[in-house]
Amino acid sequence: MIPLVRRQLARRARPLLARRYATPTKDPNPQLNGYPELPDVSAQYRPALGWQDKLLRRNFGETVHHHEEVNSMWGPDIPVIPPQQALRQFFIAAGCFVAAGLFMRSYLVPERPAVPREYPFGGLEKELGGHKANPEAESSDE
Question: Which Pfam families would you find in this protein's record (predicted)?
Fold first, then answer.
C-alpha cells in the first residue's frame, strides 16, 4: 500500500518538482548540518487515504521536513486557481459592482419632485453667521 501511495504522490508532485531535480545540485545547505533536504511539497497534495496518521497525511517514523510548519496540512492552503486568474476575476467582479452602482445612480434614481430651496443674500450668510459675516472668528482659528 505504501509504495502505491508514494507513486501517486510522485505522480502528482512531479510537475512541481521536475524543475528542481532538473537543475544541477548545489552544495548541501550548511545550516541543515546533514539533515536530509526534502522537496518543498505541501502535504495537501498527498492523497487522503493510505496514511498511518490520517490527520497530517504521513506515516510514523517518516522524516519531517525542515519547513514542516509551512508544508504540513495546517499550513497555508494551496490556491485552487493561479493568483493572476484570481486577481482578474476579482477585478471583473469589482467592475461589475461599480458598473451596477453607476447604472442605478444615473438611470434608476428619480429626479427631485421639488425645486431645492434658495435663500436670498448669499444663502442667509449674514443672518445665520457665516464666515464672511464674522471675520474675527476665522482669524482666531489659525
Answer: NDUF_B8
